[in-house]
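User: Now give one protein:

AI:
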Amino acid sequence: MPAPLPTDCLNGIFKCLLDDLNYTSSLHSCLLVNKLWCETVIPLIWNNPWQCAKLILSNKDWPPLVRTLLSCLPEDSKEILRNHGIDLLLRTTSQKPPLFDYVGYCQHLSPTVMDKLKSVTVDEDNKNNVNSEYKAYREHLVEQEFYKLFMTKCSLKHLVLPKIPLSYFPGANHCLEYLRDLKCYTERSPELFYGLAHISRNLHRLTIYPCDQDNDGLITLIKLQKGLKTLVLVSSEDYVSICPEIGQALATQMHSLSFLKIRQSLCIPPQTISSFINLRILQLDITTEVSNMESLAYVTLPKLEILDIFCDENAPFNTYSSLISNSISSNSSYLKRIYWHKINPPTCAEEIGKYIQILLPASSTLRFLTVWWSEELFTLLNLCDQLETIKFCNHKDLRGNIDYLSNNLIESENCLQGKLIFELLKILSLENLCIICLQGGWAFTSEELKEFLEFWKEQRKNTLSLYILSFESQSKNEPEGIIREYMNDGILKDFGDRDSLENFYSMEINMNI
């Protein structure tokens, strides 16, 4: 009989199944194999039992989960619930002690989860019209007892801050001491943050949503952290507000912060961003008009590896090209990805030329690049020997510029000839290239596409993913037959109209965050 796999190996295998949204279906069958498999799977499922797809999509699977949690309550908590008429689920709960310390495995908790737990617990009794007028009070009791249970049994790693002051519960010091990921709101009472600041000083990730105003408690919590690494700031939609004191507090984490994402509005001063000297990833998704965005042109990020501009249709293009220039001038060996999507595009050939010149010193490290067509493009791409993904953008404002394009490159009023890109890629030695995205109206014939794919088949080792957004062929029909042929041959891995970054994330760069 072959020796069983070691626990560490099983654990690694089962963790791979967690990537599946319906992972509980996959892991549930593993529970029944033998005792070792069961003991290995249970902690994985209960690490974050609330993320199960069945619970997200349906309410019918919550009662069994709640019954399990009720069985973990101490007797005094059960008695409190019984004394207030909350006993239907308790009566259907096994009287035997749980086989596992289910609650002890939990590392994720949020008010949304707690609302569901207390609602299911109380609603099961209300179905029989038992003291329904006291529902709110009884839900409060259930919430208190469940929070006591989690504070006593868990060592949470991920928390969405509730309105209840958790630091007052018995066991909170143990439960919250090693908290790593916190999501919170600036409108929460400062006292909630003061209590947490006394216990939790090892946060790695902080999400503030919404981040609309300064909060003295939150400011204190930020300043007391020993090494914050990841920061996500989200303003309320269509709300513009600067939080200067939160910005000053974040500056105390300048040596450890390596990831920053800002959405909706720039809620901290640009000079705060410039203080993050070890920032490696900057992602911006700005959907409101912000008066101080142009100040980003003076920001320098010497360790910047990834710049993702998902949206900012207000700041001029040269604001970001200046930021890139400043960061490259400090050290050109870090930049790996530059991604643009909904932005103010370059307005003239000179801006594109300047952008390309800025990128030349970083060409040897670039793996993902967004570019606009230019006569100087070959010089840059010929130096990008690590390039894996390239996104070619096009913009109608440039097509009428005689200095930028000659008429014979224009396919129609709205499109440029896609064969320009195909011919350029044929003469470049981009051995690592595997994803190409064309955005903004590139026209080509089926014959031109087939000729390029045939070249790729003969000259390249990598399978190709090709994404074309807003394209036209002369026949006005997508060349489905050609695409199907080369996908069947294994030359094309993927084809569609999705943006290139969506697929690039599946090729994750190990950022060690």
Q: What stands out?
A: The longest helix spans residues 135-153. Residues 7-47 form one domain.
